[in-house]
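Work Package 4 report. The design task specified in the project plan requires that, given a folded chain encoded as C-alpha cells, an amino acid be chosen for each position. We show below one input record used in the internal validation round.
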C-alpha cells in the first residue's frame, strides 16, 4: 500500500511507533545481550561513531531498520537451533563402546 493511500491516523501511529523505536534502540540492543562492537561491525561503522549515535539517539532510519532486522534474524536463527535441539532430545544415545563395536562389526563384513 502506498503512503498516499494510508489514512492519516495510521501514518501518525506508524510515525509514533518509529519514534519510540528510535528513542529506545539503545535499550533494545542492551536487552538482547549483544556486544556493542558486534552491532557496530554489522553496521559497518567505527565503534566510536556507534557509541556517539547511541548516546545522542541519532541513528539514521536505515540504520535502525538494519539493527532491528539483524536482531530479528538472529532471534529466528536461535529459535531454529533451539527447536532442533529440542527435537533431538529423544534421539537414541550411543556410548562410545557401542559405537566402536558397530564400527568393528562393519569392518568384519
Amino acid at each position: 500500500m502506498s503512503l498516499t493511500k494510508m489514512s492519516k491516523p495510521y501514518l501518525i501511529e506508524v510515525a509514533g511507533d518509529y519514534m519510540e523505536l528510535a528513542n529506545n534502540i539503545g535499550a533494545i540492543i542492551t536487552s538482547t545481550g549483544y556486544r556493542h562492537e558486534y552491532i557496530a561491525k554489522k553496521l559497518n561503522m567505527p565503534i566510536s561513531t556507534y557509541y556517539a549515535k547511541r548516546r545522542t539517539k541519532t541513528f539514521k532510519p536505515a540504520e535502525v531498520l538494519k539493527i532491528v532486522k539483524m536482531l530479528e534474524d538472529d532471534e529466528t536463527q536461535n529459535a531454529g537451533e533451539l527447536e532442533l535441539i529440542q527435537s533431538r532430545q529423544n534421539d537414541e544415545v550411543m556410548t562410545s563402546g557401542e559405537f566402536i563395536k558397530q564400527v568393528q562389526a562393519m569392518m568384519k563384513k
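The helical segments are 8-23, 25-32, 36-42, 47-56, 61-88, 96-108. Validation will be extended to a larger panel in the next phase.
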